[in-house]
Amino acid sequence: MAEVNQSQVESACCGVGGCCTGTERSLDPTVTVTEAKKAAGCGCVDDTEQAGLPVVVVGAGPVGLAAAAHLAERGLDFVVLEAGDAVGAAISEWGHVRLFSPWRYDTDAAARRLLEPTGWTPPAPDTLPTGAELVRDYLTPLARVPELAGRIHTRTRMVAVSRQGMDVTRTLGRDERPLLVRTVGPDGTVTDLPARAVIDASGTWGHGNPLGHSGLPAPGEEEAAARLTGPLPDVLGRDRDRFTGRHTLVVGMGHSAANTLLDLAELARTAPGTRITWAVRGSSVARLYGGGDADGLPARGALGTRLKNAVENNEIDLIRGFTITRFTTGDGAVQVTGTTEDGDRVITADTVVAATGFRPDLDILREVRLDLDPATQAPTKLAPLIDPNFHSCGTVPPHGERDLAHPEPGFYLAGMKSYGRAPTFLLATGYEQVRSIVAALAGDRDAADTVQLDLPETGVCSTDLVTEDRPTAQDGGCGTSCSTPSAAEPISISTGAPTGLGFSTGIEHGYSGEAEPADA
């Protein structure tokens, strides 16, 4: 170690200033804080400044609790922060919706190992659960196992992540400081929680894409908030009165939109005056209609077929090529102005269902160093594997801790949030992500790098769709997106976000395949 002034040493502790506080700095700029303290024989430093600190898991949904289960099995200290009132709070908001994937793909292996000694009975593997059943029969019992009970803090929101004593610009000694998670508790108390590592599995629910074009809210969209709903209202249950006898405009072309449209159609059969308009920006809805009986997921194929029939039977008024440019509120309704090939058009509705997808909340992460793809906002190494411009199949290459790591050591995005704006997340993929991350945190590099996904492939891919909306298949293959097996089998589907997210769309080369035939 280089020489330092003796008076500095005498007025400092262990060769550093601000010893054992959040403002420590080495008196010799050529060495790190830890090196200086070790050289001075300081008694207040372990091998690492982060020894004994917990891993903080953000989000008590399926992926967050899977991370907790793996941490418990590895004997690592951890806490789970959940903004909602209970585990699976986001899923409970769309609990009336049935998943496309059966139970055998909806649970994590480590979680099952913790549940089995408690007498938990696994649900029938081929049954399709609703969101409410996923919470009731899996997440709630998992949160109660002895290894997790007491470590899950509900009604506690993470509002920021940083490095203790450093903002994002500071580099010297950064890796030696613990991460710092700022939380707001149920009574409004702000707490700064030091952490060895942070696994942000908080998802994207509640951060919907705007209804306006070009990724921006339309003028008047904020003022119309009282007339807008999220992507999966409970049309036939708790929200029934809002839609009965009224005109609803559904905007979007994912499975969230399809579920809501079919619920509205069912309501309209028994509630006179109930009207449904469906507006999409594209010129074709082939990718949502899907492959019908050819779909490897029967429930998904049936959804597209039912929706197609409802449109053809005039139960739903479909408006293609509608780009929203303005919202105007007044007289108890909202006027939605949009451009079409025939000029501007105004739709007057009582309620607008925004089923336009989600984006991650990155504002709370501005003080940590992230490496994100500029298009998808997913980790740079992960982005090419999931980019919806080129990938739409349900086959995702195995990826783990190395693909999810950021320049900020110990910080990870996992689950739906790790996919950024890509709507192709698979729940089983999230489980494998956190298994690999936890193995790396435990120092088991071999296990972290041995990444495998149990994802039987779907027979419906990019070009083998044959529907009346898109009458011809092309080359019978999948282009560069994936390979199609000879026999269609179910694929594991996401529940880290609502049913409208996480499913292969079946269009050629992702978004780039949306250029449909003119007569589609």
Automatic annotation (TrEMBL):
Keywords: Oxidoreductase. It comes from the Bacteria. Gene3D superfamilies: FAD/NAD(P)-binding domain (3.50.50.60). GO terms for molecular function: flavin adenine dinucleotide binding; monooxygenase activity. InterPro entries: Auxin_biosynth/cation_transpt, FAD/NAD-bd_sf. It holds the Pfam family Pyr_redox_3. This is FAD-dependent oxidoreductase. It comes from Actinomadura spongiicola. The lineage of its organism: Bacteria, Bacillati, Actinomycetota, Actinomycetes, Streptosporangiales.
